[in-house]
Amino acid sequence: MGKLIIEGPAKLTGSVKISGSKNSALPIFAATLLCDERVVLENVPDLMDIHTMIEILSASGCTISFNGGVATIDPPTRPNTEVPYELVRKMRASFNVLGPLAAKFGKACVSLPGGCSIGVRPVDYHLEGLQRLGFSTTIEHGIVTAQLQKKVDEVIISLPFPSVGATEHIMTTAAILNGTHTVIENAAMEPEIEDLALFLNKTGCRVLGAGTRRIEIFGIGRAHGCTHRIIPDRIEAGTYIIAVAATMGNALIENLDVSHLISFFDVLESTGVNLSRLSQDKVMVSMDQRPNGVKIQVTPYPGFPTDLQPQIIAFLSKAQGTSTVTETVFKSRFQHVDELRRLGAKIEVNDGTAIIYGVDQISGTQVSATDLRAAAALVIAGLMAKGTTVVNDVDQIFRGYENLVEKLSNLSAVIEYQQ
């Protein structure tokens, strides 16, 4: 695993362009398995997770080219519905190929997923949803097999929690079950869900209500090809906004969608960050003082995003006064806290809430990244800290941030990657 060496304290200035959304691209890649014709996806970020998904689709028989942010996907002539463990173990989103493969070809076998260690994320909701859609599911030796057993005319699937992955998986699978009317209650509302629905509708599927808690899917017999542009990555945008504010910098954030970050903007502005919305896709960020302490509750969209929780905790480590961050999505997602303490942050964690006592200064040292967003938090902390910070085991950050070193360097950061 590589490491990032960061010299601080930095003051980020300039401009940065946000890439396409990883969390939107991955389920859309999985959904291309439904299509009988070529699909072209634009604004695809060049990330480790994207390349893993390309390998999975290739292993399933698809022919794929990926260059300059454009992925061209041709359907398999000789499909393979058994996805190997060595690919699925790399990321959780890969599990979402199970339903589409089984819906299209009758049966599929996919290993239980891997990904970031941010807490327990069982696939129960996924499997229960597939069963309600008429599939039998079995788990043996770590491999999940789904087989279409019966046609279901009407089904209502009420999720106990608005799981993004389960919503995407059920929605995609149901889209090609001809004659089946599916309703997902308590569905996830994230922008990535809306983007997936837009893609599915472009292929001829019929999905209504995406972006609300109730989604209806009217299954069709086949899906055709289309061209689709992936939405901007709101988590990448939020990360750079926090980084600029944390270093008391001044920078233009381009190619984002401000409507996807309203709750996040509200929190940032309450800490004292200046956010000038120049247009729907451009925001000027500036900060000239230590942030004010705040209370944040992390909740499903449209609330404050769990994928920005580690970064905001790093930012608040130098706030004036005390802040609290309560995590309701992944209650154990605080592995970054111990590493932030090594830099001099004063943070306690108690029953899903981080209590952050703001300090005047944090100092560079050796830290280790435990997951993708924790790595981003440690990079932000390194930019804030006095002296040299070395973030070890950092390669997982490239699962979610395209051209990270180049983008930060262009913002005047002194940062170097070493293997």
Describe the structure.
There is one protein chain. This protein is of the alpha/beta class and 419 residues long. It folds into 2 domains: 3-19 and 232-418, Enolpyruvate transferase domain (UDP-n-acetylglucosamine1-carboxyvinyl-transferase, Chain); 22-229, Enolpyruvate transferase domain (UDP-n-acetylglucosamine1-carboxyvinyl-transferase, Chain). The chain is built from 13 helices and 24 strands. A 4-stranded mixed beta sheet has the order 22-23-1-24. A hairpin with a 2-residue loop joins strand 8 and strand 9 (143-148). Helix 1 (22-31) packs parallel to helix 2, helix 8 (234-246) runs parallel beside helix 10 and helix 11 packs parallel to helix 12 (372-384). The longest helix is centred in the middle third of the chain and has 13 residues, at 234-246. The radius of gyration is 21 Å and the shape is elongated. The N and C termini lie close together (7 Å).
The general outline is: elongated
Using the CA coordinates, give the radius of gyration.
Answer: 21 Å
CATH class of the largest domain: Alpha Beta
Q: What percent of the residues sit in helical stretches (DSSP H or I)?
A: 25-40%
Detail the poorly predicted runs: 115-120
CATH superfamily of the largest domain: Enolpyruvate transferase domain
Q: What gap, in angstroms, lies between the N and C termini?
A: 7 Å
What would the average pLDDT be, to the nearest integer?
95
Tell me the CATH topology of the largest domain: UDP-n-acetylglucosamine1-carboxyvinyl-transferase, Chain
The assigned CATH architecture of the largest domain is: Alpha-beta prism
For this entry, what is the oligomeric state of its chains? single chain
